[in-house]
Amino acid sequence: MPSPWTLLMALHAIAAGNISAHQRFMTGSYFGLVGAFIGVVAVPDRRLPQMAIHDLPGLTLWTGALALTAGLTVAGLLQLRQNAGARVSIRK
Predict the structure, then answer these.
(1) Do 16 and 52 have their domain in common?
(2) Cβ(13)–Cβ(25) under 8 Å?
(3) pLDDT, the chain, mean
(4) What DSSP designation does 46 have?
(5) In angstroms, what CA-CA distances link 31 with 25, 38, 41, 55, 71?
(6) Which whole number is the average pLDDT over 32-36?
(7) Does residue 6 contact residue 29 with C-beta atoms inside 8 Å?
(8) Structural domain containing residue 84
(9) Burial, 11: exposed, middle or buried (Cβ in 10 Å; 0-12, 13-18, 19+)?
């Protein structure tokens, strides 16, 4: 599963302009997430598959909270990016 460390490093790399490091960190995070998904599907007695079968409203609420958090994070980062762009001045 993607750890906060790899995602932080990916954000730092792209902010520093290091595209190749950013791509490597994000690729690693993606494959980690795919591995976690395979683990959830392969072992059906784990928490998420059990929630999908026995507690669908709870799973829906949990998934909605994660989606809301991700959306707010993206909106905040876009706002920071716009504010940073507005502060850049060109001297002649």
Answers:
(1) no
(2) yes
(3) 81
(4) S
(5) 10, 10, 15, 28, 22
(6) 83
(7) yes
(8) 45-92
(9) middle
**Structure tokens given for 91:** 């001297």
pLDDT at 86: 62
8's tokens: 């932080």
What pLDDT does 1 receive?
A: 45
Average pLDDT value for residue range 59-81: 86
In this structure, are 66 and 81 located in the same domain?
A: yes
Do residues 2 and 31 make contact, with C-beta atoms less than 8 angstroms apart? Answer: no
Angle of the 47-54 helix axis to the 19-42 helix axis, nearest 10: 60
Name residue, tokens 């709870």: 58
Q: What is the mean pLDDT of residues 64-80?
A: 86
In this structure, are 54 and 66 located in the same domain? yes
pLDDT per residue as tens digits for the range 16-32 = 988 888 888 888 888 88
24 and 54 inside one domain: no
